[in-house]
Design goal:
The protein is mainly α. It starts with a helix and ends with a helix.
Length: 192
């Protein structure tokens, strides 16, 4: 996958130079497929980095996680490139948001997921946005955490589930429990 990603990157870069295209422009379906494949290559490399580490070696595991996050970001950037060229395709925005979330960048993930919802307001995207909001809150320092955005997303999910029953409604309550744990941890640090 690493070799394929390198080759695709060189081909796409060379194509821009030969065609006189500016970066950020995708002109044909083959190039779109190449960019999707490039994103897949980065994502697959990242997932393999995470799955092949032995838990005994913490420094190696942390280095692998860092490298995997870099690869997830590169995959997200490939989707982000496609969102500029094909802004009406919500799936590219969803994938960019999903991969930024996995890479530990919930702020960027939230932006992409909000734009995806503007195009296709599905319950699956709402779940993903709620998760991204929760991670965004978790990554903030305890003194700057804002819980309202997560609570609003969970409320929106509750409303949607009333209209569209889902197979696993308990996942909303699980996110609520995680939010409560964050609030409680914040309260404990204020009291100390």
């Amino acid at each position: 996958y690493e070799a394929a990603a390198g080759l695709l990157d060189r081909i796409l870069t060379g194509h821009l130079v030969v065609s006189g295209q500016q970066a950020g422009q995708t002109i044909n379906r083959n190039e779109v497929h190449a960019r999707l494949l490039l994103a897949h290559c980065y994502e697959t490399q990242a997932r393999r980095k995470l799955s092949t580490q032995s838990p005994e070696v913490l420094t190696t595991a942390q280095a692998a996680r860092d490298e995997a996050n870099t690869l997830f970001r590169r995959a997200a950037e490939a989707y982000e490139h496609l969102t500029r060229d094909l802004p009406q395709v919500s799936q590219f925005r969803e994938m960019a948001g999903r991969l930024y979330l996995v890479a530990g960048e919930p702020e960027i993930a939230v932006l992409h997921l909000q734009r995806a919802i503007e195009l296709d307001d599905s319950i699956g995207l709402r779940f993903l946005l709620a998760r991204a909001r929760l991670e965004q809150t978790r990554s903030a320092s305890p003194s700057t955490r804002v819980f309202e955005a997560v609570e609003n997303e969970l409320e929106e999910l509750d409303n949607r589930v009333q209209q569209e029953p889902i197979a696993q409604p308990w996942t909303i309550e699980l996110m609520r429990a995680e939010l409560l744990a964050l609030k409680t941890a914040g309260d404990d640090s204020k009291n100390n």
